[in-house]
Amino acid sequence: MKVNFTETVLRDANQSLIATRMPFSDFEGILETLDQAGYYSLECWGGATFDSCLRYLNEDPWERLRKIKAKVKNTKLQMLLRGQNILGYKHYPDDVVRKFIAHSVHNGMDIFRIFDALNDFRNIEVAVDETLKQGAHAQGCICYTTSPIHSLEKYAEMGKQLEELGVNSICIKDMAGIMGPQEAFDLIKALKESVKTPVFLHTHSTTGLGPVTYAKAVEAGCDGIDTAISSFSGGTSQPATESMQHALFQLGYETGLDVKVLKKINDFFKPLKSQYIATGLMDTYVLGTETDALVYQVPGGMLSNLIAQLKAQNAIDKLDEVLAETPKVRKDLGYPPLVTPMSQMVGVQAAANVLAGERYKNISKEVKSYLKGEYGQAPGVVDEELISKVLGDGKPISIRFADTLYPAFEKSKQEIGSLARNDEDVLSYIAFPQIAEKFFKDREEKESRTVSYTIIKKPEETR
Ligand code: CO
């Protein structure tokens, strides 16, 4: 049996270890080698890469994609897409979702891993449909969480729903790295029994369970795993590519990977890692194993956010109380998976409940929107009292939120005007309005400087 490997060094590892600050110029030199390793796919775009390119790296994310594609000719390029949210935290109208996917395919994207934070598949339907229409690979995602309502049957049912949408494969996304080996075995087995499409597993090394979880998942028939080249593996990133290759090969699986090429890739990234540690971009803390997530049942990232938030409010002594309140808020909200943006919403609300000395005295704008149904259908039953507190006699919307939104692409295109040079620019602008606008203006300025420089230089050159 073959186990497919997705290399995450350019996206998730980059995002998890150095807040997605790796500029294209740092990894350009290894792209052709990455293409030779035998990976099933190379995750290189989506999530925070887009934002980070525009905001911090002064790079056009579309151009980055095209440049990667020019050097990675055989391996499929993969991106992470937040369904109707595309790359952000709010829902976009369907015309924007479709345009975004069409242009992504056009610029070189092959596989779209599409998820919704609530596993409300109405929110990924349009993205899946457009991906298939464009002839690309649609991978439907199930966000993994544990709760009294998240049973194996429920997950198997979700797998069937995804299959009905026509996805080419399914991915279980354990963004918090809390899935243990037995859970992985049971879950993959249940899914393999209920669906025909390949099933992939995505986890993180955060709690240290990653490698053993992957091994049991593969034993249960998992078709593919996500790993990061060893110098960018471990901690909040993925388990190491080379170690998983070694272990699975020993256990009798085919991996398709060339270990000599993997060594070259790691030799390339090793000095980069040292450089990032030296400049402080990589905090070695994220490389360690953090088991608190297992005790508190909250993702590591959410825990560090909570600690930072409480420290800022001079209330770190309330941490235990907030951690006790967190599962209660989650229950009141119908057990949403603790993935962005739900993890932030639940955490902030739990802190507010404790600090105010009264539950739901202050309710955040986001939680209000959630209760109105603007994020989609909650996985479980939402607390009635809480709903009536926010909505009065009103009811949460039952239709898909995007159905209440007007088409936005043409309007945004007019709004940004000539600063946008093509439809890709318009999409960048829709995703990150202020940041993209600033990026476009800087680009114009830079170019006008270059032009005047050329004019001044010219007479000298002709001499
Ligand atoms: Co991840």
Report on this structure.
The protein has 463 residues and is of the alpha/beta class. It has 3 domains: 4-279, TIM Barrel, CATH 3.20.20.70; 284-403, Orthogonal Bundle (Cyclin A, domain 1), CATH 1.10.472; 409-461. It is 50% helix and 9% strand. It contains 21 helices and 8 strands. It has helices at 12-18, 24-27, 31-34, 49-55, 61-71, 94-106, 125-133, 152-165, 181-194, 210-219, 241-250, 259-278, 292-296, 300-312, 319-332, 342-355, 365-371, 384-391, 409-416, 423-431, 433-462, and strands at residues 4-7, 41-46, 76-81, 111-114, 137-143, 169-173, 199-202, 224-227. An 8-stranded parallel barrel has the order 1-2-3-4-5-6-7-8, surrounded by 5 helices. Strand 6 (169-173), helix 9 (181-194) and strand 7 form a beta-alpha-beta unit. Helix 14 packs parallel to helix 16 (342-355) and helix 15 (319-332) packs across helix 16 (342-355). The radius of gyration is 23 Å and the shape is globular. The chain binds cobalt (II) ion. Cobalt (II) ion binds at residues 12, 175, 202, 204.
Q: Which characteristics define this entry?
A:
binds cobalt (II) ion, alpha/beta, 21 helices, Cyclin A, domain 1, 8 strands, TIM Barrel, 3 domains, 8-stranded parallel barrel
